[in-house]
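Quick illustration, no need to memorize.
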Amino acid sequence: MKMAWKKNTTDSKIKTLKRPINPNLPFDNPNCSFDTTEGESTGNDAVGNKKTSLFSDEEDGKRKNLAQDFEAQGNKLAEEGKYREALGKWETAITLMPERAVLHEQKAQILLELGDAWSALKAATRATELEPRWAEAWITLGRAQLNFGEPDCAVESFDKALAIKPDCDAKVDRQTASHLLKRRKQLHSTGLSSAESRFLVGDQHLRSS
């Protein structure tokens, strides 16, 4: 079952990840004492650290802006149906901003369009790892699992999406996954695989003719 790509409209819900605080910084530790005999050296170190921080923030800003440019280019290409070109742009953006969940989720949608269910499953899984409270990521993961032949896992993913956002688009997809899961159980109960079942039906048709 092929899933069509659609532009993500919930990008504003992506949370900004905060940098961890370094516990070794003296002003973060109330028990830390300063040695006044080394005040000049400490001051120089502080100036050096400040410059390094400024350069680091500047580089982060440039990298973020570049990633956003590649993401926008990918969005435009995807809307035009140029999926492979879009995928290339998003791959570059992911290299620059690997913790941006929306990029992984949109990548998964494109991979589904291209028929690569396994890679789509991996990309969607990464999106849910980065944003576990984002319903759209769980929907895309469920669709990838459905295309990969895992309706049981897909049902679980759609359930998670519905638990987060009850009015999301996962209801119909869950019904599809449940139907496929029941069909699989019926085949297993008869002792026939899907391939064997198709063969017997075709063979019966030939014999009747």
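The radius of gyration is 25 Å.
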